[in-house]
Write a structure and sequence with these properties.
Elements (H helix, E strand, L loop, with lengths): L5 E2 L5 E3 L6 H13 L2 H10 L9 E5 L4 H12 L3 E5 L8 H10 L2 E3 L6 H12 L9 E4 L3 H19 L11 H16 L3 H8 L2 E4 L2 H13 L6 E3 L4 H23 L8 E5 L3 H12 L3 E5 L3 H9 L7 H4 L5 E4 L9 H6 L5 E4 L9 H5 L5 E6 L2 E5 L6 E5 L5 H4 L6 H20 L10 E2 L3 H12 L11 H6 L16
Parallel strand pairs: 2-5, 3-4, 3-6, 4-5, 6-7, 7-8, 8-16, 9-10, 9-11, 11-12, 12-15
Antiparallel strand pairs: 1-2, 13-14, 14-15
Length: 485
């Protein structure tokens, strides 16, 4: 697509694939709202007071229907939003179209190139001459990364006159980041400093982005406060565990017609995401094996009757491989070359670097056969046999299916709304320093409580005597901060 900004009749900027899909997007949003009671409760509770009135929020999230409901919740609370996708393949084009038409500036479409992806992030951060957003909602940390790298490069330019050099790295994506910053410095050498000065903070959605934030905190380079939404119980357990338990199989079955029952399935990693994936595969009749580095997680798998082996132990025998670690270089091309014919390889961790796609794409003589979008068979020249790679190594559930169901995303996004409200409310009090924070337990419990009615649950009430016996308030929170659910 040509990288040029368009304008809706309202004057809002956008770049999406097909605005004619907006009506379809609206119908899907109306269905999703019924399954997202937390967000609807936020609108009812906070909407009348408009606590985010005229607040500028940049959102870098998977641009799908569930995110659309979240964005409309922010605008219902008064915010002005500019948004992009945090994944080149996960955008639902009808969701992007309806938000662009009705609510916010959107720069997202399914099947972006990496260059287009970073262009979209830059547009979502571009609020004109007034210095950028007040708040960021991030998933994976790329919007946050661009600002931090921009500030670092501007400081170097001011001291030495040296511009960023994209050729200084072998990482193709980071080359694009440095190129964007280099071009920006030529136009405005204080662009990212102005963003930093205006920014109140960021709320981060996922494990990989949170890890980056904690690294910056340790290094003393974090430029603004951050709330780690990922480690709220009602996000981490519900999104990572129950969401993946639902959406992994959805992605596998939409992408292929392979029967899961009876197959040997390897789950790399047994954190919350791995636990959800392993449970889903077991329930579908697969014979599941886990790989792990952590002895505690390994012991948990064994207690569920799941063998724990190394990838090298099983690479030649397994039928389905799922990476869930949030790390890099988990399944390499030398592993894929050993796999049986038509073994399925996919990722539901984060980013696209758990599977060695570069090594596969550059393997001498390898042949890529695209069966349908994001379902590719790669044939090795030495054997004439091939493997099936889904979503080009990106997130299978968001690329080959539609992501997590609305209900579980309501839990995650209700945490995001609360985090954004908290950062903005406390912006002048000094409560939040340039550190990473988690939401307190009572807010975690509130998010859960907002979803109980939809499922017909009724909570038992503690008597004052019972509450005193276990040393908790009658109204909660009911567990100490260090409790592990």
């Amino acid at each position: 697509m040509a990288l040029s900004v368009e304008k809706a009749s309202s004057g809002r900027e956008y770049k999406v694939k097909d605005m004619s899909q907006a009506d379809f997007g609206r119908l899907e949003i109306e269905l999703a709202e019924v399954e997202m009671p937390g967000l609807m409760s936020c609108r009812a509770e906070f909407g009348p007071s408009q606590p985010l009135k005229e607040v500028r929020i940049t959102s870098s999230l998977h641009m799908n229907i569930q995110t659309a409901v979240f964005i409309e919740t922010l605008t219902a609370l008064g915010a002005t939003v500019r948004c992009c996708s945090c994944n080149i393949f996960s955008t639902q084009d009808h969701a992007a179209a309806v938000i662009a038409r009705d609510d916010a500036a959107v720069f997202a479409w399914k099947g972006e190139t990496l260059q287009e992806y970073w262009w979209c992030i830059e547009r979502a951060l571009d609020w004109g001459s007034e210095g950028g957003p007040d708040l960021i909602v991030d998933d994976g940390g790329d919007a946050t990364l661009l600002i931090h790298e921009g500030v670092k490069a501007e400081e170097e330019y001011e001291k030495t006159g040296k511009l960023p050099d994209p050729s200084s790295t072998d990482n193709v994506e980071f080359q694009l980041v440095l190129g964007i910053i280099k071009d920006g410095i030529k136009v405005d050498p204080k662009k990212y400093h102005e963003m930093k000065e205006r920014l109140v903070g960021v709320s981060e959605q996922t494990t990989s982005g949170v890890r980056r934030l904690y690294q910056m905190q340790v290094n003393g380079t974090l430029l603004f406060p951050a709330i780690n939404v990922n480690d709220s119980v009602t996000k981490k357990k519900f999104d990572n565990l129950y969401g993946c338990r639902h959406s992994l199989l959805d992605g596998l079955m939409r992408a292929t017609d392979v029967m899961i029952a009876g197959k040997v399935s390897v789950v790399c990693g047994y954190g919350d995401v791995g636990k959800g994936c392993a449970a889903a595969l077991k329930q579908a009749g697969a014979r599941v094996i886990v790989t792990e580095i952590d002895p505690i997680c390994a012991l948990q798998a064994l207690m569920e009757g799941i063998p724990v082996l190394t990838l090298e132990d099983v690479v030649k025998e397994a039928d389905i491989f799922v990476t869930t670690t949030g790390n890099k270089d988990i399944i390499m091309v030398h592993h894929m070359k050993q796999m049986k014919n038509n073994a399925i390889v996919c990722n539901i961790g984060h980013f696209d670097n758990e599977i060695d796609m570069h090594g596969l794409e550059t393997y001498p003589g390898v042949k890529r056969i695209t069966i349908k979008p994001q379902t590719d068979r790669w044939v090795f020249p030495e054997t004439g046999t091939g493997i099936i790679v889904l979503a080009e190594g990106w997130l299978i559930n968001l690329v080959c299916a539609s992501g997590h169901p609305s209900f579980v995303m309501s839990c995650s996004f209700t945490n995001q709304v609360i985090a954004q409200l908290e950062l903005w409310k406390e912006r002048a009090t000094g409560k939040y320093e340039k550190k990473v924070y988690v939401l307190p337990k009572h807010l975690d419990e509130k998010v859960a409580a907002l979803h109980l009615g939809k499922l017909g649950a009724k909570l038992t009430k503690l008597s004052p005597e019972q509450a005193a016996y276990i040393s908790v308030p009658v109204e909660g929170p009911y567990k100490p901060p260090n409790y592990r659910y």
